[in-house]
What does this fold into?
Amino acid sequence: MDRNNVNYAVYLVTDSTPAILGDRDLCEVVEASVRGGTTIVQLREKTSDTGDMIAMGKKLHAITKKYNVPLLINDRVDVALAVGCEGVHIGQDDMELSTARRLLGPDAIIGVTVSTIQEAMVACKGGADYLGIGTVYATPTKTNTKNIIGAAGVRNILQAMADAGYDHVKTVCIGGINAENLQRIVYQSEAPSKKLDGVAVVSALVAAPDPEAAAKNLLGLFNSQPPFVREATSPRAETADSILELVPEVVLEVARKKPLSHNMTNLVVQNFAANVALAIGASPIMANNGEEAFDLCKLGGALVVNMGTVDPDGLQNYLKALRAYNSVGQPVVYDPVGAGATTLRRSAVKTILSHGYLDIIKGNEGEIRTVYGIYERETFQQRGVDSSAELEVSQKAELVRQLALREKNVVVMTGEIDYLSDGQHTFRIDNGHAYLEMVTGTGCVLGTTISAFVAAYPNDKLAATVVALLHFEIAAERAAERRDVQGPGTFVPAFLDELFKIRRETGQGRMGWLKSAK
Ligand code: 3NM
Ligand code: MG
It folds into this structure.
């Protein structure tokens, strides 16, 4: 077997503890999984005697050879030699890579576990064939893991490898990966010039009721795009001018499609959000029970997860709905209300970010900063910014861009000036009015507005978001300027009117409202 030509796509790590294997036979489970499409197998036994491990290794090797799939042994170079299999996988506390290479020879496949950029650089320099990057997410399968790094941590390591010229070193990630999150993790961990060669799993195969079907499914998922990645039907609008040209089309798509805006939101804003959705031509539903999302996600709409009131039940409902919308690729707008205010909210942000793909994240400066800094080792403050001070204009734009780049989505930061970015293109919108800050829930209903626009125009979520913001902010300006509006109270009904009037004027080909776009 050529060690330079190994398929790492679905990498099975064995575990024979009863909690995972149950009362099944490991050889049968491995064979079924290889039949289904597993491309590489690692025998991992933490407690067996050496003789038993060698015996198991030989049995597994007879199986893997039949399918032309490599077998590696975890930690134990001596066992690999005795079995005569294709290589080893070594952890940070195991034998030195150079020693393993010397003992096993130039043809052996040697992989190394890494959780930091520094460990990755050492392993690449030392001649590892591949890196096992993790721990991606906390997993009951291995509880003594050192670092939980998320998809963002994997991406940082891939980027560092590419930057240092180690593109040729293969990579898999490990830790809590299953059929549900595989595509999102692979997608979000992809650096501009390096992506994962595979995913390593224990329980997703060994504990699967049907390991053959499970392997087939994982392989299919690894080799295809997640549903939330939309192929653009025409070139994406990338400049402010080209987005402005799209404004009438996008505004009218909302009215034409009347997309469902499924709001999981707080009690304070439900009525306001529903009225805003109706004014722009969308069809609102306020449904906080996650079970309903499995039906609602099929209606072509978008989900708003507004963390305005968060409790354990609420969080579980968000996760269910997120799973439902992600599974069909319908957009999700996440509004991390009060993200940094309490420990509970910080922890909810982390849970939500790690459980699904959020097409749009919308928040004020504090909220966006909290979301950005949620993985402790990566706070924006560390770049020389005092955590209490307001960010400079250029820092705001950069924060939004970096978060969008990390999450591979669109990020909106609201304020006197709104910033938004998809990581490649960053825009600021200067429209709006101070009354918006004097009325409760205007930020939340902006989330609702964005959801309708991305649902109606899903192939270009950046353009859809820009248009949503313009429609919203210019309606606020027009309302505030009206003679009958004297303050926040009279502002609200006028704002609803202007949202509606902008849509109607656009339908009549009257685009005068857009002249005030800043
Ligand atoms: N190594 P599951 S995590 C074997 O982080 C192993 O290095 C890890 O199990 C690491 O796929 C892990 O069931 C267990 O989550 C992964
Ligand atoms: Mg080890």
Observations:
- The pocket of magnesium ion (ligand 2) is lined by residues 74-75, 91, 94 (CB under 6 Å).
- Residues 461-481 form the longest helix (21 residues).
- The CA atoms of residues 151 and 189 lie 5 Å apart.
- Residues 377-387 have pLDDT under 50 and may be disordered.
